[in-house]
Write a structure and sequence with these properties.
Layout lengths: L11 H19 L7 H17 L18 H11 L5 H4 L6 H11 L2 H12 L5 E4 L16 E5 L2 E12 L6 E7 L10 E7 L5 E6 L21 E12 L3 E2 L5 H7 L2 H28 L1 E2 L2 E2 L4 H31 L4 H28 L1 H5 L5 H9 L8 H13 L14 H18 L1
Parallel strand pairs: 1-4
Antiparallel strand pairs: 2-3, 3-7, 4-5, 5-8, 6-7, 9-10
The protein binds flavin-adenine dinucleotide.
The site of flavin-adenine dinucleotide has 20 residues, from strand 1, strand 3 and helix 13.
């Protein structure tokens, strides 16, 4: 009997340590670091990261040879559910995007010299990285259409193009840039992945674009001085040596795919952590606030909010855990895993938004105000219907995978067409009725 919904007992002490650390240290600290620059933040965070390393939980998504724990995806999912409660936690635990995904890409695509230079320092937290695929003037949902070019000139690659939403590019040490090497090649073999170190002449970070998560007017030249920015970047005859290409020309798409599987599930599980936090606020408010002489919790519509939230979060959590389990049992790139990962990727952000919205609603004006974390959580969560693939793109993948093994009935009629089914049933079982 393989179905088992229990948390592995040997992992529970670590999960409890993480819960305490996240709730008692990281969430309170989040309220105090506004206005600090990256150097100050790094000094503030260093002892916290050390605590995580001492506990053996740093970069736990990595295999042991890279300093991680070699946990399977189910363990990681349970861990990310806890980390998701705080937006600071992934950084403190060494598993924050885009670095974690970039490390996965480098681990599969880079040669040993490239790993020494970029992967190992990235894993140790000594470098920060950026992933630059999306462009303002082409559709990120269809990367076969990107326009940024990468052309060979002697011993160098020359990059020209325009990227944006290249997260952290204003403070990262290097960017992994996806650029077209051969526009005439088949669509999925046109692009390559190339490393551009910070400060390379010809790479210009134009600004950190304001967003719902971090609304600010962002004229040219506005840079945030800290992680969390989504940068607009221009490459103008930007030259890097030939050994800065990861893999071969034409392998960019395959490498881009490699960085997203685990990351999407960890993202989804962190969203469950956010759901839990919003749900805790919803429940507390329901019993604490009175209207018309009784607590909100006694109002039927509020009870429906509570019951619906519970069911939706449980369903979401089971879907993500099942996706993680499928990755562990059938492989991260198996069809079954790809189906569940895409399903989780569009389902969970919508549930998260709904649960946060209910919590805002029940807090009334206070929920809408910045006196509660809910409005910020809502703004942050909205990105998740777009980042790492828009809902529609994942729905399309789910539909495509679901239909791969489905065939139309030879007769041209639906398989469940009653008149023809009845005819077949009569031919098989008519004699039984005749005997009656
Ligand atoms: C917070 C945040 C961080 C990000 N970080 C990074 C990063 O670090 N690096 C990076 O390269 N990119 C990053 N992105 C960009 C992100 O990956 C893209 O925004 C996303 O892939 C969608 O691309 P697009 O914005 O060009 O939208 P488009 O591709 O133009 O799509 C616009 C909309 O069209 C609809 N649509 C698209 N395709 C279909 C379809 N097949 N069927 C039906 N409707 C469709 C969807 O509603 C979609 O939202 C980030 C985005 C956000 C919000």
């Amino acid at each position: 009997m393989a179905w088992d919904f229990a948390t592995p007992a040997e992992f529970e002490p670590d999960l409890q340590w993480m819960r305490d650390f996240v709730d008692q240290t990281l969430i309170p600290l989040e309220l105090l670091y506004e206005g600090l620059d990256q150097q100050q933040l790094d000094r503030l965070w260093a002892p916290l990261k050390q605590q995580v390393k001492d506990r053996g939980l740093w970069a736990a998504h990595l295999p042991p040879e890279h300093g991680g724990q070699g946990y399977g995806q189910v363990h990681l999912a349970l861990m990310h559910e806890v980390l998701g409660r705080s937006e600071l936690a992934p950084e403190i635990f060494g598993c924050q995007g885009p670095d974690s995904g970039n490390a996965e890409l480098l681990a599969v695509g880079a040669n040993e010299a490239q790993k020494q230079r970029w992967l190992y320092p990235l894993l140790a937290g000594e470098l920060r990285s950026t992933f630059a695929l999306t462009e303002p003037h082409t559709s990120g949902s269809d990367p076969t259409g990107i326009k940024t070019r990468c052309e060979r000139d002697g011993d160098e690659w020359v990059i020209n193009g325009h990227k944006w939403f290249a997260s952290n590019a204003s403070v990262s040490d290097f960017s992994l840039v996806m650029a077209v090497t051969d526009p005439e090649a088949p669509p999925h073999k046109r692009a390559a992945m190339i490393v551009v170190p910070r400060g390379t002449p010809g790479m210009r970070v134009v600004r950190d674009v304001g967003s719902m998560h971090d609304p600010h007017y962002s004229p040219e030249g506005f840079l945030m001085d800290r992680i969390g920015g989504h940068s607009e970047v221009l490459f103008e005859n930007c030259r890097v040596p030939l050994d800065h290409m990861i893999g071969e020309p034409g392998e960019g798409f395959v490498l881009a795919q490699k960085r997203l599987g685990g990351g999407r599930i960890h993202h989804a599980m962190r969203m469950i952590g956010q759901c839990n936090r919003a749900f805790e606020m919803l429940k507390e408010r329901a019993i604490a606030r009175e209207t018309r002489g009784k607590p909100l919790a006694k109002q039927q519509m509020v009870q429906a909010m509570l019951a619906d939230s519970y069911v939706e979060i449980e369903m979401a959590r089971l879907l993500v855990l099942k996706s993680a389990w499928t990755m562990d049992t059938e492989g991260p790139f198996s069809k079954a895993a790809r189906l569940d990962i895409s399903a989780s990727k569009f389902a969970i952000p919508n549930i998260l938004l709904t649960v946060i919205d209910r919590a805002i609603q029940l807090h009334g004006a206070m929920g809408y105000s910045t006196d509660m974390p809910l409005e910020k959580m809502y703004r942050g969560a909205r990105a998740l219907r777009i980042a790492d693939g828009a809902d529609e793109v994942h729905k399309q993948s789910v539909a495509r995978l679901l239909l791969e093994d489905v065939e139309a009935n030879e007769s041209g009629l639906p398989s469940e067409h009653i008149p023809s089914q009845r005819q077949r049933a009569e031919a098989r079982f008519g004699h039984l009725l005749a005997d009656l």
